[in-house]
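Regression test attached.
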Amino acid sequence: MMLQQINAEALLSVSDLTVHRGPAKILDRVSLSLAKGETLALVGESGAGKSTIATALMQLLDGAEIEGTADLQGAGDLLSLRKREMVKLRGQRLSMIFQDAGAALNPAYTVGRQLITTLRRNLGLSRSAARSRAIELFTQVGINDAEARLSAFPHQLSGGMQQRVMVAIALACNPDLLLADEPTSALDVTIQAQIIRLILQLTRERGASCIFVLHDLALASQSCDRIVVLYAGQVVESGPSEEVLKRHRHPYTRQLESCVLEIGRKDLQAPEGTVPSHDQMPAGCRFATRCPRALDRCAREAPPLTPADPARSDARDHLFACWNPE
Amino acid sequence: MMLDTATTRTAPSRTAPIFELIEVEKVFQVRPPGRRFTREKVGLRALDGVRLSVEKGASLALVGESGSGKSTLLRMVAGLDAPSGGRALYHGRPIREVRAEGPGFARDVAMVYQDARGSLDPRMTVGALIAEPLRHFGIVPKAQEETRVGELLERVGLPADAAKRYPSGLSGGQVRRVAIARALASEPSVLVADEAVSGLDVSTQAQLLTLLRKLQQEMGITLVFITHDLGVASYLCEQIAIMYLGRIVETGPTDAVLNAPAHPYAAALRGAAPRFFEPIPEPLPGEIPSPLDLPKGCRFSTRCPMAQDDCRTRDPQLGTLGAGRAVACLHPLAPSDT
């Protein structure tokens, strides 16, 4: 597809990723690419398939049929790697931070042990070398009194601290790709700002790329170079953050944006309806049932992703899928 | 409106506030941290000197980080907990006393819980869940129950056939609507909601917020709303009270407070809220301290970017700042600073 032509240097290029779970098609031909050092946000409502993309890339998706490819530079297709090969890549080339750090950490082991195990297994460090590296990492992620905190159990830490531990574990082996699945949606805004800044700073220092799964468009605009908007398992619009949000073409992007309540906003037009369930998915455009601009054609034919403005070089990879764009 | 209750305190009358909290304290007796097998107890001060009044028809947002005492305050207002000190009044009488007299209070003050799904019996249909308060408070004769349930479902934007479904078959947004319908069933004059729209998709959140605002404006319901989202607070509530470690640190009309916060904590909360294409500002350092080990002087001094020497020794009280506002800070920000 065209995405790959543009980004020959891509660190990750996903093409036509399709995921079936039983009769339901959770993801439908999702393509995206990510350059080295770039941050990308996957946004959309629950059920849009944001987290499914991240878990599929990690090969953590059980009980689903997966089609398509996801090439990670120098590692081949992540989706067809054998389990043993994937185990080697996790942590070293790509790693993931989960929404609920408290559930992702093992409650029976101290956080220090969990980090040290990661370091020893992936990097083959000795016990003492791993321990001093763990202290360094804890300090880097802003955990005060790092040495003492190594012997804390997850439940002894606050939500923000648990997420810092997750960041330390995820970045312990300097992966080039970090997947962050709603890393801050369970946290207070002040802690959210701390954690997002921390992730951005540490990935930038390491030259790593980052895919954020977010539901807050304002936060996505603050933290990511590019945005991919998903609706019911399909990409409906993607491109540079400014292009997608300031010159959006897809009515769904506008709808998502108009629901963001910035401080001081008093007008709010609530959208009608909900995302259709998988057994009632429309044949044409999946957004057609809720779309204020829907035409007859929309109900019958699914719109392809098309370039928004081929003439402008900075908008080259701004794509949208709509028959009646804004 | 919410201030200086001491000067405006009057005998219960039609103009008296619905709720009035005067120097309310709540101390929980807990085991010292890390010592699970001791009988010793220490006092955890969840609320400390809270003054607040809620007038009829008002909409008040309680905002603050986890651990600031929002939910404890809400439980006090709903009469679920008694204050350890101070007075919590409903139409001029202690809330717990009124609540003990009979179902009248519970009928008038309805609550929407944070975990809406957890608050609904999974073995009851939506229709039965909504009919339960109708029957309990004797709102309508049994013959009209079904019609009333249908009306309530319609009011919260659910289809009539939802009555036959179980909570497990509903989405997160729909479950919240059921919880709101159930709260409205007793025809309350006050709706008390704990994070009623958090954790939802933005579009579902927008649907619920427009619904709540409509209820507030059309039915004149008084709303006490806990949220951690300042955008939600500014959309839905005319008044705001920002809490930190068991105290109200700033309060007043929402727009005035958020346009020019006087307390550095209010300013930090405003700064941390996501805004399109603004760089993420330097966040507050650290986390909210333990209420078992309160900082000396101003409670916020350990994290405050503007803390001065006296902040670490003197504990500021909530003082008026003109135009219905009040702030608890020794060195409040001038409007030009923000």
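Expected vs. actual: identical. Chain A touches chain B at residues 45-46, 158-161, 185, 188-194, 196-197, 215-219, 221-223, 241-242, 245, 255-256, 259-266, 268-271, 274 (CB under 8 Å).
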